[in-house]
Design goal:
The protein has 201 residues and is α/β, with parallel strands linked by helices. Helices cover 31% and strands 21% of the residues. It has a domain at 2-65 and 109-166: DHBP synthase (Alpha-Beta Complex). Strands 1-8-2-3-7-4-6-5-9-10 form a 10-stranded mixed beta sheet, with helices on both faces. The longest helix is centred in the N-terminal third of the chain and has 11 residues, at 10-20. It is globular.
């Protein structure tokens, strides 16, 4: 696994090349480090599940560059769009009805300019899950990540942004039903949600 510095201007293009080739990367986010791949390549997503040892029946959220990108892949009702406009970019994962499929999808717009710029240039969402073995704590330590995934994990590169501030994973809310339901508590409080989404929450 190649270690790339976030401060190196070549890192952006290197990560893009790995994603476009179907590879797996570890990247910093506005919460914890995440394992990422092209959301639209099933073989890559399957590989990500294997690396993380994640239950294949669970889903992985997609990170989008902005709300407009998210609207290309999910049905977002006007009242939901209004609330997301107040909380995105940010640490809220929205579970929404997927466009063109009888399924739901978790989407988030991170508050991390390097990452949103990367996704915007990539041109479509990336699948991202916390960089840890399933059942273990999400990682913010670059040294621990190198120890856990540095050898034999089939990860092409890791973007070193140093140790990230200790942050909880994103708040997850199901918007496929009313009232909207919190699936995982996180940095976006229930009061924040009530203020953004009003009586539907």
């Amino acid at each position: 696994m190649q270690k790339l510095s976030l401060d190196d201007p070549k890192t952006h293009d290197s990560v893009l090349a790995v994603l476009k080739s179907g590879g797996i990367v570890i990247i910093p986010t506005d919460t914890v480090y995440g394992i990422a791949c092209d959301a639209f390549l099933p073989a890559s997503v399957e590989k990500l599940f294997e690396i993380k040892r994640r239950d294949p029946n669970k889903t992985i959220a997609w990170l989008c560059a902005d709300l407009e990108m998210a609207k290309k892949y999910a049905h977002i009702a006007p009242e939901v769009e209004h609330g997301l406009g107040r909380l995105w970019p940010g640490v809220l994962t929205a579970v929404l009805p997927a466009l063109g499929a009888e399924a739901s999808i978790g989407l988030r717009v991170p508050r991390y300019p390097w990452l949103t710029d990367l996704i915007r240039e990539f041109g479509r969402p990336i699948a991202v899950t916390s960089a840890n073995i399933s059942g273990e704590a999400p990682q913010s330590s670059i040294a621990q990540l190198l120890k856990d995934f540095g050898a034999g994990a089939s990860i092409e590169c890791i973007v070193d942004a140093g140790d990230l501030p200790a942050e909880a994973p994103s708040t997850v809310v199901d918007f496929t039903q009313k009232p909207y339901r919190v699936l995982r508590d996180g940095p976006v409080s229930r009061q924040d949600l009530k203020e953004a989404f009003g009586e539907n929450f």
